[in-house]
Amino acid sequence: MTRVIFGRCSLLCLLFLFASHIWASNQFRLYQYEQKDSLGNPGVRLIFYTPNLSQYIPHIIRQYEQSVAMHTELWKLHNPLEEPCIWLTDMEDDGNGGAAPLPANFIGVGMAPVNQSYYINPSVERYAHLFRHEYTHIVMTDRPNAADSRYRSFFGAKVVADASNPITSLWSYLTTPRWYAPRWYHEGIACFLETWMSGGVGRALGGYDEMYFRSLVADSARLSTVVGLESEGTTKDFQLGTNAYLYGLRFVNYLVLIYGPDKVLDFYNRTDDSKKFFASQFRKVFGKSLTDTWNEWQIYEREHQHRNLAAIRKYPETTMQPLTNKPYGSASPLIVDDSLGVAYVAVNYPGYFAHIERIHLATGERKKISKIDGPMLYQTAYIALDRKRQRLFWTERNSAWRGLKWKSVGESLLTDDKPLSGKKKYQRVSNIVYDNSRDCLYGLLSHEGVTNIVRYDASLEKQNVLYTFKFGVSVSDLDVSPDGNTLSMTISGVRGEQSLVLFNVDDLDNANYTYRTLKTLDDSNLTQFRFTPDGKSLVGTSYYTGVANLWSIDIEDGEMHLLSNVSSGLFAPVVTSSGQLYAHKFSHEGFTPVRMEYRELKDCNSVDFLGQEAYKSHPEIASY
Length: 624
Hints:
30 strands, five-stranded antiparallel beta sheet
């Protein structure tokens, strides 16, 4: 995911180290903004490193205060919690956030748009989404009952555990007991509330989460136990720590469905009659052990997914041919070079360094092209191909400020020791695509919360900004038409809607900053759409039926046509000049490149989401 990261005291350490570096270098300044509430109490305190961010502070504060008000009402917070310090940064090209209660309440906010790879994380306006999630962590970990308050008073503060003095772990537990709970515990309730505090837009009703568990059941794979999730479930799986989000939210959805939301809130709430240890509190509220209930959820999950699989399979499933003999783990969309009969993909799977592979389409032979420094989860890196010069481009340092590398790949399958053709640091460019018609490279540049469409010339010496989106707009999945006249991309709206839009390149060059909205889906996604070779349509992925199926959209009239019916999901399709359709097939082990026939389908069934079942049984959760 390149998702929100929670539960790391290192966030504070990084803050202090970064601040020390700034002060020591005497080249930057830190800025602070404080605002009191209507009663004169401390309301919000922000720290940021450039005055350019100050123009966005009123909007950010509004979103924060709305989230605080929602949580105050939901949890009946009669006494205000300790005012958190909010740290605004722009040190990464993919937005994220973090929260911690020790030694003081802290929320970190990454200004960049959230990564939209494979549409893992549906959300509304990103700062509203972030604060509703992160402030849940503050409430869960910092809200004290009478006993916690007495210990905090006795020690004079919330105690931070010090590895050099083991007894401090006990003191820390006495002052902030709920901090010491597994990550799934925290992320499950945070993802649940971020969804229902946003009107039902979020992972609790997310197609990716549903697809992941459906694929586990379809493959007769083992679901992680409550203990195993914190060990092998975070190391062997290609998704690493994001399993805490998947399993935690799934378990909370089940608890709401079976026992109702009031009991779930009682389980998480820290009141005077609650237990310090989260598992003891679970038994107190639900009258049974956490392990037994977790096992009951797994039985229900399998039954739920078997019903979904039966619905999907009432119509013939799409036949496809895998290009590799095992899943890739995280993988970028394929780039297919028909002239050489090869495909390129950036991959990252457990036990290996992230790298770019070249696949021979006829034989399945695979060769490593180059290692990737700083891969990201799910997509690994962004790649593009200059077919005229046979240069392959990719992004590096994908968890920080991205750079660009490129390499001549030629006609032979190369080994990893081929020297690089070029490298540019700190370009901050993602979603790269090469225009082989006009001989230039396009990308999306993120800077201080704003996304720009940029273009490099063939030498990559000159970068031009063609268009700047308004603050807060999230853009992804850039592509260019075969004739080089049109750019396509997906814009995520503030209510969770997604729009596929088209820019005319000549209009941008002439400062005509208008675009055409080809298609908008209010309650689903439009992901990874790319032009067909004739330029008359785009093919991509949507959870329109609840399943990640492939769709084509006609550029002339915007009509959608179904191209697949699968049990798990298909992503990142590309149609070649020879008429072949390639895509990534999802499984719980990652993505596998596949080839299939390009044809339209007439019928398929939708699936039911566990979160949807929870809402139908308890519609009051929409009032959150």
